[in-house]
């Protein structure tokens, strides 16, 4: 389900909020593509994570201070979320400063990816490719295979 909302700060709330079953229908109503708009503002293409390990009920696109793109995929449960980020450079842009007991390097599509988590359940993946930094946070966490599938589906 995709939401199209019109928000005016001075009115302190939503003027209009409509739900659409597909991103294409929401984009048609809104008259623009959130991904295209975000890409244009930031000056680089913003990919999507196509293989989310739960049913996505909402997607939020955010421009992080003109420095990074953020796409948040929320599931039916508040405990199901994937947060994807992309920025220029090689810094860790995840915003996740937790210390994890499991840190593992894996190769996905010829790129070195660092997975972080506890007890075999990973919560974070970070990597660099072609001058950009990427991060993928997943709550409640998943196996290496789940992360590899999500990363392979970034396009």
Tell me about this structure:
There is one protein chain. This protein is α+β, with helices and mostly antiparallel strands and 155 residues long. Helix content is 17%, strand content 48%. The protein is built from three helices and nine strands. It has helices at 23-30, 34-42, 144-152; strands at 2-8, 13-20, 56-64, 68-75, 81-88, 102-108, 111-118, 121-129, 132-142. The chain has a seven-stranded antiparallel beta sheet, with helices on one face. It is globular and about 45 Å long.
Task: Tag the structure with descriptive keywords.
single chain; 155 residues; alpha+beta; 7-stranded antiparallel beta sheet; two-stranded antiparallel ribbon; 3 helices; 48% strand; disordered N terminus
Provide a concise account of the structure shown.
The protein has 155 residues and is an alpha+beta fold.
Helices, strands, pairings?
Blueprint lengths: L1 E7 L4 E8 L2 H8 L3 H9 L13 E9 L3 E8 L5 E8 L13 E7 L2 E8 L2 E9 L2 E11 L1 H9 L3
Antiparallel strand pairs: 1-2, 3-4, 4-5, 5-9, 6-7, 7-8, 8-9
Q: What profile does the largest beta sheet have?
A: 7 strands, antiparallel
Report the structural category: alpha+beta
**Element order, helices and strands?**
EEHHEEEEEEEH
Give me the Rg, rounded. 16 Å
Q: Whole-Å distance between the termini? A: 20 Å
* Total number of strands: 9
Query: What is the helical fraction, as a range of percent?
Result: 10-25%
Low-pLDDT runs? 1-15
Tell me the overall shape: globular
Mean pLDDT: 83
Give the strand content.
Answer: over 45%
Strand order of the largest sheet: 3-4-5-9-8-7-6
* Helical run tally: 3
């Amino acid at each position: 389900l995709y939401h199209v909302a019109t928000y005016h700060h001075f009115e302190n709330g939503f003027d209009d909020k409509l739900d659409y079953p597909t991103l294409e229908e929401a984009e048609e109503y809104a008259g623009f593509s959130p991904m295209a708009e975000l890409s244009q503002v930031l000056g680089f293409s913003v990919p999507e994570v196509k293989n989310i390990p739960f049913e996505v009920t909402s997607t939020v696109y955010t421009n992080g201070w003109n420095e990074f793109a953020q796409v948040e995929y929320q599931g039916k449960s508040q405990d199901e979320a994937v947060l994807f980020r992309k920025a220029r450079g090689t810094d860790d842009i995840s915003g996740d400063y937790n210390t994890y007991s499991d840190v593992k390097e894996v190769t996905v599509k010829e790129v070195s990816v660092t997975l972080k988590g506890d007890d075999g359940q990973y919560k974070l993946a970070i990597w660099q490719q072609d001058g950009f930094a990427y991060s993928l946070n997943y709550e409640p966490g998943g196996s290496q295979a789940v992360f590899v599938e999500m990363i392979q589906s970034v396009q």
